[in-house]
Amino acid sequence: MNRLRQMSIFAHIVEAGSVSAAADKLNISKSVVSQHLKLLEKELGMILMKRTTRRQILTDVGERFYLKCKELNILANSAWDIASEYQLEPQGRFRITAPNALMDSLVVPVIADLMKTYPKLKPELICDDQHLDLIAHDIDIAIRIGSSHDSNIKQKRIGEFRDVLCGVSEKT
């Protein structure tokens, strides 16, 4: 069984006051919670709490172990909250590469509008006509002209250009 899960469930049992209350809070069956506690105590080779049908009392080692398990749950919840913030508002660095011909006329205006809506984004623009390796250069979005090589990287066609050749003749 997963040690971290067992430790998390143990902290919930202590905080809820019983196996049943912890099971209700965690939305899992009482038998699963009880099994995790029994396996945890078996793997540790010691009793963490003395239980009767009416109450539970932590042993000395159980009390010390609980405090660390509680810290674990706090840390895990904090990590979850940080990741969840990114769902509420896009933020952080992302790298885009595009050819020289498209960067100023198409990409920069779109990124400028995006930054007005999501000011916590930190775009890094790479203006390059070469097809850079996306993994090696840590690129999140690549805008390319021409046919794309078959790849296991997710690709989506977003538009089409018609070639227009222009020339200037010099009169001598």
Verbal overview:
It is a single chain. The protein is α/β, with parallel strands linked by helices. Helices cover 49% and strands 13% of the residues. The protein contains five helices and five strands; from the N terminus they run αααββαβαββ. It has helices spanning 3-16, 19-26, 30-44, 60-88, 100-117; strands at residues 49-51, 56-58, 92-98, 121-127, 141-142. The strands form two sheets. It has a three-stranded parallel β-sheet, covered by helices on one side. A two-stranded antiparallel ribbon has the order 1-2. Strand 1 (49-51) and strand 2 (56-58) form a beta hairpin. Helix 1 (3-16) packs across helix 2 and helix 2 (19-26) packs across helix 3. The longest helix has 29 residues, at 60-88. The protein is rod-shaped and about 100 Å long. The model has no long low-confidence stretch (mean pLDDT 87).
Structure in a nutshell:
The protein has 172 residues and is an alpha/beta fold. It is built from 5 helices and 5 strands; from the N terminus they run αααββαβαββ.
Multimeric organization = single chain
Pick out the low-confidence regions.
none
Distance from first to last alpha carbon = 85 Å
Q: Can you give the helix content as a percent range? A: 40-55%
Q: What are the defining features of this structure?
A:
5 helices; rod-shaped; three-stranded parallel sheet; alpha/beta; two-stranded antiparallel sheet; 172 residues
Please render the helix and strand layout as text.
Layout: H1 3-16, H2 19-26, H3 30-44, E1 49-51, E2 56-58, H4 60-88, E3 92-98, H5 100-117, E4 121-127, E5 141-142
Parallel strand pairs: 3-4, 3-5
Antiparallel strand pairs: 1-2
